[in-house]
Design goal:
By secondary structure, this protein is an alpha/beta fold. The chain has helices spanning about 5-10, 20-25, 65-75, 100-115, 125-140, 160-165, 170-190, 195-210, 215-230, 230-240, 265-270, 285-290, 290-305; strands spanning about 30-35, 35-45, 55, 80-85, 120-125, 145-150, 250-255, 275-280.
Length: about 300
């Protein structure tokens, strides 16, 4: 992407309100949940014998992160739901701590509205892993299986300096607000190790589109403090999930710079019965970068009795 276009996308951040008129332009649908209006897409692959699937994205990239996985699962007959977390994508920018429990409530309300009384398979990538674990801990008995892609939430995570700076009282939020848009868009391109330039540019443009709506910076700031860095609390959620013996698959890339794979050492101890798959040469967002590979390694787990 040319520097001129990149800078223009950065400058457009937080310049619009997510009004009814803006929502009407967007693909997908909306639900007015108690926790806040939620942007989602639901597609039925037609095989009623298979449990429904809900895809929970991570810290900054909204539901398009699951493009390949979403379509791949639908093609296999699954009824699949993907949605934008509150505070990002095209979902409401609410006043919230944006911690794992708050996101778990959103997931609960979404599931109750779209697939009431049904058990489902939950996918969580990055911060979405912490959210799925919090959901399992708060609402036991609802999950059929769990799939985790490079999940956040382990208490051996060593946050980089830029994350630590964001938590410094008063000046931390100012520093975060000044750099988050440029750094997020820049890192997005760097994490796509196997994509051509056209695909990288498309990814950056899609991210920037949702960043233009006011409230994105606050939502990601609060999520960093109260979910990404709340690793002791999040690890406890994983431990509670493990006690429920929910079949779980974890996939992690060896070249992950955002949620480094060293955390796998801790997760193996926390989720003792989980199935672990290592993607050699893959980045943090392999589910988008290598969609076919991701689906191919996930489907056998879903089909296991």
């Amino acid at each position: 992407m040319e520097k001129k276009e990149f800078n223009k996308l950065v400058k457009a951040a937080e310049t619009k309100k997510l009004t009814a008129k803006e929502k009407a332009k967007a693909p997908g649908e909306y639900l007015d949940l108690k926790c806040g209006f939620t942007h989602y897409e639901m597609k039925d692959g037609g095989d009623a014998s298979k449990p429904p699937v809900i895809l929970v994205h991570g810290y900054s990239t909204p539901y398009f992160l699951y493009d390949a996985v979403f379509e791949g699962l639908v093609a296999e007959g699954y009824r699949v739901i993907r949605y934008d977390l509150l505070g990002r994508g095209l979902s409401e920018r609410v006043k919230s701590k944006y911690d794992a429990e708050a996101f778990a409530v959103q997931l609960k309300e979404l599931a109750d509205a779209l697939i009431p009384n049904e058990k489902f398979i939950a996918f969580g990538t990055s911060m979405g892993g912490s959210i799925v674990a919090a959901f399992a801990a708060k609402y036991p008995g609802r999950l059929e299986k769990v799939v985790l892609y490079a999940p956040a939430g382990m208490d051996n995570f060593k946050p980089p300096i830029y994350m630590k700076l964001a938590t410094v009282p008063v000046i931390g939020k100012r520093i975060f607000s000044a750099v988050i848009i440029r750094s997020s868009l820049g890192r997005a391109g760097e994490e796509l190790l196997h994509a051509d330039e056209a695909k990288k540019d498309d990814y950056i443009r899609k991210m920037a589109y949702t960043m233009q709506y006011k409230g994105y910076i606050n939502g990601t700031y609060q999520s960093l403090k109260n979910t990404i860095l709340a690793t002791k609390k999040d690890t406890k959620f994983y431990k509670k999930m493990a006690k429920q013996n929910i079949p779980t698959l974890v996939i992690w890339g060896t070249e992950d710079k955002t949620m480094p794979i060293y955390q796998l050492d801790r997760m193996v101890k926390v989720l003792k019965d989980a199935e672990f798959v290592i993607f050699e040469g893959s980045s943090h967002i392999f589910l988008y970068d290598e969609g076919e590979r991701t689906v191919a390694h996930t489907l056998p787990f879903l089909e296991e009795e």
